Every structure is written in structure tokens, then in C-alpha cells.
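Task: sequence in, structure out. Protein: Cytosolic Fe-S cluster assembly factor NUBP2 homolog.
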Amino acid sequence: MVADNLLSEVKNIVLVLSGKGGVGKSTVAVQLALSLVADGKKVGILDIDICGPSIPQMFGIDSEVMQSDKGWKPVYTDDSKTLALMSIAFLLRSRNDAVVWRGPKKNSMIKQFVSTVDWGSLDYLIVDTPPGTSDEHMSVIESLAGFDNKSAVLVTTPQLISVGDVRREATFCEKTGIRVLGIVENMSGFVCPNCKDCTDIFAAGGGQLLATETGLDLITKIPIDPNLTKSGENGTNFVKAFQDSPAAQSVFRMRDYVQNKMS
Ligand SMILES: Nc1ncnc2c1ncn2[C@@H]1O[C@H](COP(=O)(O)OP(=O)(O)OP(=O)(O)O)[C@@H](O)[C@H]1O
Ligand code: SF4
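Result:
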């Protein structure tokens, strides 16, 4: 069963969640999408971070939303149309416009996103969410209530303070009936490009601790990679350009895990 007929050709939905801001949720969403595309899949990214949309910038795309005869056309990253994007940023006149909407207006925008975007056929729709468990989360979950094949990935960093936030996110998923595929530990050490040694810059073991406590799988640990930071600023396809790097290999493990669990 599907929530709406414009999602009728979408096979799987993956929500990317984190309890805390700045842990790399959008980065994980984008790299998961690009790695699925590298595996021949058709993918969409829905950016529901109404107050801080970052997906268009991560692809270096500045575009306006156009209408199709069915709804809003997503913005494609290239002519092959294998990766489609939708973000509030495409609806704003300028990237610097601030969104100061109260809950009900945000809710209706998210419901419109879910019901009005003409995604066409997709293997995966990745939903990039704001941090925490806010109005946006409730709205998207309510809007997707009729879509069966949906799951979540929880992103954390190795510090324990972040783990506490993600634990609350796991409880939220349990209460709202969203299946959690597992935990991604991001910024998990820094692999030196010279000696390939991994230094735990922040701390170590947060993702594993959370996994042990919640009984969820630790899907992968993505190290800090300066090229990954740069790709978020200049729109480079990181997993294609740096496919042999430890960070890209870790992203591929996440992709394979997600595909196995959702098949
Ligand atoms: N593994 C990594 N290696 C290097 N840089 C990273 C990594 N993960 C994230 N970053 C960088 O950290 C910053 C924050 O990442 P990102 O925007 O993905 O976080 P977020 O959790 O989505 O933030 P927000 O709370 O604003 O939604 C970005 O500059 C991004 O490029
Ligand atoms: S980890 Fe090794 S190679 Fe890298 S900066 Fe430190 S000493 Fe140099």
C-alpha cells in the first residue's frame, strides 16, 4: 500500500535521522544516495529540513521548482536523471532567505512535499530530516503512514553526548512504528592520508555502545575525510572521485547493508 499515487512507483523509503545537529546527517543521506546510484539504482532525496536545507548546496545546484502535469518536478542532478532532489531551498527566492514558519505551516509544507512531488519511478527515496524529533518528523511520518517499505538509519558521532540524543531518536522510532535498520557512526576517527593510521580525534565507541544498548546493528563507521568535507561544499561526487578511500569504502558498506535489509 502507498501513501499517495505519486509515490506508487517508489519502492523503498529510508529516513536519515539524528538526535543532534551537525553530526553529518545530510552528508550520510547524500553519500548513501550517490553510492546507490553508483550501484545502478534510481534515487531521490527529499530534504525536509525546512529551517536549514543543505541538500542543494551539497550538489552545487541552484534551481527553481517547475510544475509537471501531476505536481512538482524534482530537480535532477544530471541528464541521466538517476538522482532527483526536492528541497525547500528550491522554493525560496534566495538561498539566504530565512524560513520563520510556525509548526502548522511547516507541517503543511511537508505534507505537500510528500504528496505533490512527481518522483516517477525510484528504487530509493532518501529523506534528510532536521535534528531531533520535531514537528517535521511527525508530519513526514504521518504523511507516509500508508507506505509500508520504509525504514530509518540513525546517525551519531563517537561522543557519548551524541549517543544520548540518538537513544531518544531510537525511542521515537519505536513509538511511531518506524523500523530502524541500524546505526551509522560518522566522524569516526581521522585516517591520515600519509601513514593511514586512524586517530580518534573526538572519542571512540559511541556507536558501538548505542548498538549494544539498543540491540541495533552498528552498520558502519565513517571516518573524517577532508575530501568529504570539500565535496559538501563544491558538489563533487565523493564516492566516485575517492572510491578507494576508507570513508568511501565505509559508505559502500552502509549501502550494501541497507540494500540487504530492505530487499
Ligand atoms: N565523515 C566526514 N568527514 C568530513 N567531513 C564531514 C564528515 N561528515 C560530515 N562532515 C562535514 O561536517 C559538516 C556537517 O555535516 P552535515 O551538514 O552533513 O551535518 P547535519 O547533521 O546534516 O547538520 P544539520 O544539523 O545542520 O542538519 C559539513 O561541513 C560536512 O561536510
Ligand atoms: S598520523 Fe602519521 S603521517 Fe599522519 S600526520 Fe600524524 S604522524 Fe604524520
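Residues 18, 21-27, 49, 52, 54, 131, 186-187, 222, 224-225, 228-229, 232, 247 surround adenosine-5'-triphosphate (ligand 1) (CB under 6 Å).
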